[in-house]
Amino acid sequence: MNYRNLKIIKPTKMKKTTSLLLVFLLLMVVFIVNAQNRRSNPIVSHMFTADATARVWEDERLYVYPSTDIAGTRSYSTMDGYHIFSTEDLITWKDHGEILHSRDVSWGWRKGGYMWAPDCVYKDGIYYYFFPHKNAKKIWEIGVATSRKPASDFEVQGYIKGGETFCDPNVFIDDDGEIYLYAVVDAKCYAAKLKDNMMEIEGEMVHQIGTDEHREGPFVFKRKGKYYMIYPDHHRPYNEMQYSMSDNPLGPWEPKGLIMEQNDLITMHGSMVEFKGQWYLFYHNGSLSGGISVNRSICFDPVYFNEDGTIQMIKKSLGVELPTFYKAINFNEMFGTLSVGNYQQKDLKKNGILPNGISSIQIPDGYVVECFEKDNFKGESWLFEEDRIDLNAVGCNNIISSLKITKSNTKNLVKNSSFELATQNQIKYWRGKSSEKLSWYRDTTAKGFYSLQYKGEGSPVEKVQQVQLSPKTNYELSVMLKIENGSTGQVIFDTNGTFDEVLKFELDANNRAGEWIEFNGVFNSGDSSTIDFSCTTSVDFNGACYWDNIVLREK
């Protein structure tokens, strides 16, 4: 009897233990997967992208067809080289590479560029890619490229006849098979039917009544028998996203108002798509470049409809709430998130994060992540307070074995005070024309991982950051400057005339060359609400100099 009971009890305990273990493991998997059930914004971080058109095809993947902003330029005219991105889960995104460039367009503007907002639709086994581009006479045309694949092998077929001078094409195929082209000229939306060959307009392009706030980038979709057009408006200084509704694809349209407030850029071009039962708005912002209008990044957020079909105000999300770790550069292939605490190898494994597998980190404001080469917080370490897109750049890609996460006590009003890189070697938040002589510099003696370097003669085009101040408040400012041995002249950090009497820091080459020198100053803001910090040199400068660790705090 006891033996039989023992035989019964022992397997039951094992079953309970096994069940508890399975439940625990399942919960851990759910935690890891749900640590963030979508890619954080922006969704592309290794290059600048804008004007996102999102489409879902029969393979059940979501594809985004954006334009490309070129780093280091200050003009939309340089936009060139279309890429395509896709996902099956909104977490891991694939860059399918460049599928079209101005060099592939025989009828295009000889100097290239002018490859603005594209679109793509699928019809009878063929993907039609529509792109605006200026022709040899520098007049806008709407080009057409085709492929039997959604993300490769596109070949230019020519341009739409009857669509001259229009740009920002959007093509909508209705349930009855009728095809409509929407495009822009003089900040107004025009539309017409497309012929079945997808290369010719049927009739004339007609102004769309009821989209009077329209500025650019129309996108039309259909939901429950109603037609919707979303578009950026003329709001200044930054556009906002409006929409109109209609019972007819060619209008007239009824304006319905605002669905997304302004970003940190002039433009806000986007699209709306349903994916796995949820609608999303795709758009762009300037978060990776620090608000540079021609260096944009595509984002997406969920859309919700009211019972009457109107669209609710869309809430923008940016970044992550907790430090988030990835097993590939550019924030793809996500591991999961961690809160404040110390994590050894066993702790990382428990949270689904593979030691020696972290390739990029996303860090919200107010957090500090210290990464260690070895377990138990030993070996070489790296300290991060900003998103680190590619750990290769600082030498710790896939070699992190333990880490510490803390809350930051720093209250520095200057953004990117150590000139850390953002995307494509851009120095985030610091304005100024691109110059090979004035650029980021990997410096192991700097406060962060990089400093700002100038090599050359005379004064460079200055790098400037504007910082908000509270009037009648005391502040303290510090900055580190360095001049290489053999240089002549001064390296200068000043406030562009606002507080230069007390806050113009100059390091002369005749003094202490070859080492970092810290300068400090205290001032009262008085009636000023902003201050412009400027990095430059004296007009007689010749050699190499550096700026680093600029800190502004309330005193």
TrEMBL record:
Site entry (Important for catalytic activity, responsible for pKa modulation of the active site Glu and correct orientation of both the proton donor and substrate), positions: D168
Gene Ontology biological process terms in this record: xylan catabolic process
CDD domains per record: GH43_AXH_like (cd08990)
Superkingdom field: Bacteria
Keyword Hydrolase: yes
Pfam families listed in its UniProt record: Glyco_hydro_43
InterPro entries given in the database record: G_crystallin-like (IPR011024), Glyco_hydro_43 (IPR006710), Glyco_hydro_beta-prop_sf (IPR023296), Glycosyl_Hydrlase_43_Enz (IPR052176)
GO MF, one example: hydrolase activity, hydrolyzing O-glycosyl compounds
Keywords: Carbohydrate metabolism, Glycosidase, Hydrolase, Polysaccharide degradation, Xylan degradation
Family: Belongs to the glycosyl hydrolase 43 family.
Protein's UniProt name: CBM6 domain-containing protein
Organism field: Pseudalgibacter alginicilyticus
